[in-house]
């Protein structure tokens, strides 16, 4: 696969599938002139070819401490996934987890999926859950979690042979079964290549299986050359034959690490959204967690409201690609587990300055983002969002919104259940290795704690802890102002961003907005929480000067709050492992509620040797060691 190195991948916009429906209501892919599933009974074919000939559900009955992982070529309508999910829910023991990885070059539009799946009403509840979480069509991995993480779906959008090199480095010997689907070899010869069969072999566990509807000789020979034992069986319906088989011996190039013992607690330092997301990801996989914190949501995660939207650059840069995946994951995560505290109202970003207008125009010209993620609006269209906005061009993020941070953090920790223990009032000041491979933690009051596996997720509190590894980050002070709603502002339906931001009312009882936030690099670290009246004035003045509407001039401040953002020089978070027992998640800056859920999944997936939710390139760019002294600074282009 040397011809497909990760750094050669092109990040062109993803095209939706062009779909028509025949007289029987079967979807047809115009790009390949082929049907998505059998005219006779697509669900029966899925059950026969992919589920039965991969030994499901019998293989789910064997106890295991790793998720049962399925990889698929061609997500299509999602029928294979939905049928598999349905069977898993009905037959797998409660302790089992399902991880489903699927590659799709031309993702179907949600409306086409809904129309195609209407033929299978007993799958409607699963289909609805999929459609609610379905990501925007951008290249790369989109992780979706269902049923409190019992079922995980990784959708890799883009050409299979471009995406495989990004997925495979961290997926070797992780796959239990391959669904070799996609359109027929004579319709889609670009997919059925030796590099696919080699990737299948490299990713399979020992005795991993595959099944496919085709019996083409080139497919059989390619699979055999890659090391699979291949059998022929009666095909479904009118098809004479199909192929299925097994990899008798896993590829010896990689030896999977032993799965960590779930009985040994993982220690997390921190009490904000990063720590809460890591704790949730670990406990849902069956691990015990001990959380040490000064207080829960008492830092940057303690503001009354927090906007959730992606940080996008004009070009489809690494920063943008990370945020596309992170935002889609955060949105579906909050819609599910954090639903009471998620408000998907949309966000409008006003082009009130010449520089922002220029960037908006460039973004519209480049056209690299799906309209479900961000759309460029003319001045009159901005006022259609809300008549009280200024008549200026803007960017509209329809699937963005806001959360209630303190309540959300507490809610996530509560959802961890009995596997989580929390110890508050602990400020960790030093971390040192121990002779047994663990860590000694010392608090400001001299208390000592021992951790077998340690994850540092303390926001700006990481600065002193990371000094011994020469990791350079920064703390930036920000002050947010709450204002009482007036008769006009209380009708604001969306998050409004300019140089600052303005949120809809928190709730009908509180009837307050958040206006923020200052960005102060120079401050007294001993007194950063002290409120500055001039910062209150700055927040209100910025709102008035940028929005330029009468209603902004009679908003009365009722409260302020100051906290520290933890930032990096390249604006990307850090999430990774400095050693086998020391993980770091930080540098989330002012978009922690956008990036924390995916960073937590990355960190935990790395630790457990599971397929990762990001490309190999982005995993490297998020690695904490990139910020060590002497390391090259990654490019940092202007962002929107």
Automatic annotation (TrEMBL):
Q: Which InterPro entries match?
A: FAD-dep_OxRdtase (IPR006076), FAD/NAD-bd_sf (IPR036188), MnmC-like_methylTransf (IPR008471), SAM-dependent_MTases_sf (IPR029063), tRNA_MAMT_biosynth_bifunc_MnmC (IPR023032), tRNA_MNMC2 (IPR047785), tRNA_S-uridine_synth_MnmC_C (IPR017610)
Would I find Transferase among this entry's keywords? yes
Domain MnmC-like methyltransferase positions = 122-247
Keywords in alphabetical order: Cytoplasm, FAD, Flavoprotein, Methyltransferase, Multifunctional enzyme, Oxidoreductase, S-adenosyl-L-methionine, Transferase, tRNA processing
Q: Which Pfam families match?
A: DAO, Methyltransf_30
Catalytic activity as recorded in UniProt: 5-aminomethyl-2-thiouridine(34) in tRNA + S-adenosyl-L-methionine = 5-methylaminomethyl-2-thiouridine(34) in tRNA + S-adenosyl-L-homocysteine + H(+)
Where would I find the FAD dependent oxidoreductase domain in this sequence? 266-604
Any one GO BP annotation for this protein: tRNA wobble base modification
NCBIfam families, A to Z: MnmC_Cterm (TIGR03197), PRK01747.1-2 (NF002481), tRNA_MNMC2 (NF033855)
State the protein's name: tRNA 5-methylaminomethyl-2-thiouridine biosynthesis bifunctional protein MnmC
User: Can you name the source organism?
Assistant: Pseudidiomarina indica
Primary gene name: mnmC
